[in-house]
Amino acid sequence: MKKLVGKVTEAEKQEIQALFERRNGLTELARIVTPTDEALYEKVVADLGRTGTRFQDWWNRMAEKYQWESRDNGNWEIDFQTNDIYLVYPE
Question: pTM score > 0.85 for this model?
Fold first, then answer.
């Protein structure tokens, strides 16, 4: 099930979009960097961890700011075209 629960500003959307794209890029990079290149691998993993934390912090801040509805086993997602926030949960 997918339910519209809110909207964010353009600046807020741009912040999460940049984090989303960075996280996806780092995830792809982590797949191709081998642990044999230990220094690079450690940098990618560390950056991925920091980015993941910043990504989750954004969702926590916005949920508190806008008081979005939530559910057990649910998660929020954003439509980058409209800035709408949806609660996605099993039926």
Answer: yes
Domain regions of the chain by residue span: 9-69
List per-block mean pLDDT (blocks of 10 residues) for the chain, which spans 91 residues: 98 98 96 89 95 98 98 97 98 90
**What is the secondary structure of the chain as a DSSP string?**
-EEEEEE--HHHHHHHHHHHHHHHHHHHHHHHS-TTSHHHHHHHHHHHHHHHHHHHHHHHHHHHHHT----TT-EEEE-TTT-EEEEE---
